[in-house]
Amino acid sequence: MPVITEVQFSHVHGALSDTFDARPELGVTVIGERSTDPDHDTYLIQFDSDDTALIEELLTADTSVREATRMTRIKQRNLWSVSFATETELLSPIVTGEGGLVMDARRNSDPEVVGWHERWLVPNPEAVNTIWDQAREAGFDFEICELLSESRIDATHPERHMITDAQREAIKTAYTEGYFSEPRDASLADLADALDQSPSAVGGRVRRGMKTLIARTLVVNDSDQWLPGTPNLESGKSDRSPTCMGDETRHVPAMLSSLRKLIHLYTD
């Protein structure tokens, strides 16, 4: 019985631990983490900073990193291909070793919590226990934030669970209330009143949720903007396929249409 679990964890010798310590405010996201090979050690990582020199400096000094190469063909985003050192403690090989899949991996957005926040699809609850035991044994500070049972998993579209319930509720409310309409039929304050939350909290959930959905679907899986190193299962492209960014403006109408469909799919 498959389950989806949301976890947060850290390790003193974990991936990018030196970078996290040096830049607590830096956003980091693993793009297209879809490997089912526990031995793979190269990751496509996006950094929320336009300062390429800073990222290069951080990765060069980070003892968890064996090799890092900037994806120079993708100028719009600060993307790096990163291989980790042998002694770096990673959980993704343990997850894939148990037959699981890392659906979403990013630096924890809570500045008070150092480490990673991830969502995994694993074959059964026993696999979660096994990963927990191995993580503790390896010295990880590990916490399960959410465990989604089989009855609540959409097997056809498991990626709809990549956003949190709070983010899904905020995005769905924004959509139904007309926040995404042009002109807008609802303000952020209206959404906050409807959800009985502060405007800043609702705005943050909408932004983070939409960012995750767009990064994981319209950008990563769009055949016109496919990223090297990211499997595109629908088109059958391999990690040797070229990048085709083209003129971004020609994608705007299609992206807006896809975005509306995306909200329906992931919030129903």
Describe this structure in words.
This protein is of the alpha+beta class. It has two domains: 3-158, no CATH class; 163-267, no CATH class. The protein contains eight helices and eight strands, in the order βαββαββαββαβαααα. It has helices at residues 17-22, 52-61, 92-97, 125-137, 165-176, 188-195, 199-219, 252-267; strands spanning 3-10, 28-30, 42-47, 65-70, 79-84, 101-107, 116-122, 141-148. It has an eight-stranded antiparallel sheet. Helix 5 (165-176) packs across helix 7, helix 5 (165-176) crosses helix 8 (252-267) and helix 6 (188-195) packs across helix 7 (199-219). The longest helix has 21 residues, at 199-219. The model is unreliable at 219-256 (pLDDT under 50).
- Secondary structure category: alpha+beta
**How many helical stretches?**
8
Low-confidence stretches: 219-256
Listing every helix as H and every strand as E from the N terminus to the C terminus, the arrangement reads: EHEEHEEHEEHEHHHH
The Cα radius of gyration reads: 19 Å
Mean pLDDT value: 76
Q: Using the alpha-carbon principal axes, give the shape.
A: globular
Question: What is the count of structural domains?
Answer: 2
- For the termini, the CA-CA separation is 23 Å
* Main β-sheet, spatial strand arrangement: 4-5-3-2-6-7-1-8
Strand content: 15-25%
In percent, how helical is the residue content?
A: 25-40%
**Major sheet details:** 8 strands, antiparallel
Q: What's the total number of strands?
A: 8
